[in-house]
Design brief:
mainly alpha, abc type-2 transporter like fold, 3 domains, about 60% helix, elongated
Length: about 425
């Protein structure tokens, strides 16, 4: 059994050693602050000041092309009006990330596309916005696609006001089940980055501390004085927990209060998971220090595992994108499940019982999704389909289990039996 007196003596020894190196201790507290700040500031935001060449063959200031361009986000997209030849020459030279082109009859052709029932291919082509992208940088290209799409939606809303729905896509994205429509890549990366920072700071500190103490002879003195290996490990874990606790407090303050990363779950679970990841890093540092006797080799081992783990653990890119042979390796790494668990806690509100927040669907959403109304005061979807003569819809609802109470009016029972028997004339 480990003796707490020996553990306390080892903790005091480690504390005295830390006091003698205030610069190193300050760096351990400053480094996670710098890392999380740089990550939130430099990763995931929209590019700014992207130059785009605009070839507008319409000269009128009241044209649709001018109105559409006014809805582009000027903070992200800088428009440069050029001729056709100058625009493409600049794009090929890398001066512009995209070329946006409008035909000389864009306004009239677009009007015809909206008003007329049948139009020629020439009208469709002339009433379209033509965009040529530089896809060497996919993030910038995706941002430009989104900004142009948002500009067109704003233009349609401005021109058609209450009738803008006529030009909307037949696919409508409702309010997300989890997360926000405005969430960015920073939101995805941050939980994994916090765990990665905590893990590797613990790895480096523990591995180097053991190797240095072994070289200085402190470890041999501890063995001679009767300290067991279990007591040594427990003392280092407790000492590391003190440093990890300060690091976690600084990380959470910056992440939640300064950079406003959302947290829908329990803060206790968030802290517990980060602490466990720090203990895992400490354990891995002990493994490195026990296998390697030189601090240079220990540093190389800690750095060598960092980048592969960062890539394969799903911290900066989803695990689902990894090919299957590597995905099995990914699942065995310590940060793969931890990163996904922290995202689920922070963004989905999952608890330790894996219960998820109830998704509330109001009556309007039920009507949109054509959910069967079982209220006795309103007409069920089955009756509505029958009244419309939609026999296939009636049969479909019955197959889905849309049951009608046999104790109701006899007409309902007859309708149910006729539809089940496929008697079209009776149902109509």
């Amino acid at each position: 059994m480990p003796k707490w007196r020996n553990i306390a003596a080892l903790i005091i020894k480690t504390t005295v050693r830390m006091k003698r190196m205030p610069g190193s201790l300050f760096f351990q507290f400053l480094l996670p602050v710098m890392q999380i700040s740089l990550m939130c500031l430099c990763i995931g935001g929209d590019p700014k000041g992207i130059q785009v060449a605009v070839v507008n063959n319409e000269t009128s200031s009241s044209s649709f092309s001018q109105s559409l361009l006014s809805f582009l986000d000027n903070s992200s997209v800088q428009q440069v009006n050029l001729s056709h030849a100058e625009a493409f020459a600049g794009a090929y030279n890398g001066e512009y990330w995209a070329v946006i082109g409008f035909g000389k009859n864009f306004t009239s052709y677009l009007t015809k596309r909206v008003i007329q029932r049948q139009v020629s291919k020439e009208v469709v082509d002339g009433g379209s916005v033509h965009v040529w992208l530089d896809l060497t940088n996919r993030q910038i290209a995706l941002m430009l696609q989104k900004k142009i799409k948002d500009a067109f939606e704003g233009f349609v809303q401005y021109k058609m006001s209450s009738r803008s729905y006529l030009l909307s896509l037949p696919v409508k994205f409702e309010e997300p089940i989890y997360g926000s429509m405005n969430s960015d890549f920073t939101t995805f990366v941050t939980p994994g980055a916090v765990l990665s920072i905590t893990f590797y700071l613990a790895v480096g500190l523990t591995a180097l501390s053991f190797v240095i103490e072994r070289k200085e002879g402190l470890m041999e003195r501890c063995w001679v004085s009767g300290v067991s290996s279990m007591e040594t490990v427990l003392a280092y874990l407790i000492s590391q927990l003190i440093i990890i606790s300060v690091q976690i407090v600084l990380l959470l303050i910056l992440m939640l209060l300064v950079f406003k990363i959302p947290n829908e779950g329990s803060l206790v679970l968030v802290i517990s998971l980060i602490v466990l990841q720090g203990i895992t890093g400490t354990s891995f540092g002990l493994v490195i220090s026990s296998a390697i006797d030189d601090e240079q080799n220990a540093t190389q081992a800690a750095l060598g595992i960092f980048y592969p783990n960062l890539i394969v653990s799903g911290i900066i890119w989803p695990v689902e994108c990894i090919p299957y042979p590597l995905r099995y390796i990914s699942l065995a790494l310590p940060q793969t499940y931890a990163s996904e668990a922290l995202r689920c806690i922070m963004y989905r509100g999952n608890t330790h019982t894996l219960e998820r927040s109830n998704v509330r669907v109001d009556q309007e959403e039920e009507r949109k999704m054509d959910v069967t109304d079982r209220d006795g005061d309103t007409l069920p979807s089955l009756a509505m389909a029958a009244c419309e003569g939609n026999i296939s819809r009636v049969l479909y609802l019955i197959l889905l289990g849309c049951s009608v109470d046999s104790q109701d009016d006899g007409g309902w029972t007859t309708l149910h039996e006729a539809a089940a028997a496929g008697n079209t004339e009776c149902v109509q």
